[in-house]
């Protein structure tokens, strides 16, 4: 954005951050994390060219995105791409501020141990390792390796984080869920300083029931998955738990020259933004986008921040949805400012709700933290405005 565009859209613009930023800020900043197979030959070129506008986080996948016979090839390709990125930065062709947060999704603790040695020179580029199928059986092995690296890393080198994915049968099956989640939480609590966020693997969960949500539905409409997500939030989403939870992968992407189904031309777009918002969605011709928007809205309502995505078209909708509205910001700021023992409840600045100083305090803190990363929009602006300025977000 130009400075003029930024001023016209944002009451308070997003702040800058890097993989060296404070952990709490960084955990919220992961946002839309784009998965790429580690075998992709042009990762470094995509980064240096800024091919994907708005890209903040990349997950280089050594697990499900590649075949079992491609592991060695994928590791070699990963080394080469990271070396190229480091080389571009060294000669000044690529600024550190232009490098997205880089994560690597591994297959096992054995592979993690090997990569920590092989990647010694390029590890400072990496924000963290995504730890799939994280359970009480393998979790400690993963995090002990990450803790050992951090204990011996050179001064000034960024912290390396672990991002566990909860996606195993023992978690989704009701009879073992609570014991499994409590055991996992005990492990994460022990290594809390090195756990950036907790990720939900709904695709693997769904597979165990032979389920798959449709493009116009949210993961919350699959009953077994919804119930499991509720329990994950109940344990890891508590304020005192101190974890950021990242939402389920969205696996549908736009298909050109297709008209949206008429029944999808309603909430949230038409109800919230009338004909301009509807025209934008209709011109985009992508029926999967409203499903994505619905799901991110539900994520936010449940305190989830972050989304695994598999297509560049998802970047802008997800990032835009995390922008804080002026009304949210005004409420949060008022709650924090008046929590001085002299007020119990106040009418909101928008005169449409009651703000209670104590019960809404934790919500307000989360809103203010999110406002730093994603900005605060002006009073009459909304996320559709951020997309409308560049309709290629849906191409």
UniProtKB/TrEMBL annotation:
Task: Report the record's Gene Ontology biological process terms.
Answer: oxaloacetate metabolic process
* Any GO molecular function: catalytic activity
Name the cofactor(s) required for activity, per the record: Mg(2+)
| Sorted UniProt keywords | Magnesium, Metal-binding
Which domain of life, per UniProt? Answer: Bacteria
A Pfam family cross-referenced in the UniProt record is: C-C_Bond_Lyase
Under PANTHER family, the record lists: CITRATE LYASE SUBUNIT BETA (PTHR32308:SF10), LYASE BETA SUBUNIT, PUTATIVE (AFU_ORTHOLOGUE AFUA_4G13030)-RELATED (PTHR32308)
Task: From the Swiss-Prot or TrEMBL record, give the protein name.
Answer: ATP/GTP-binding protein
**What organism does this protein naturally occur in?**
Paenibacillus nasutitermitis
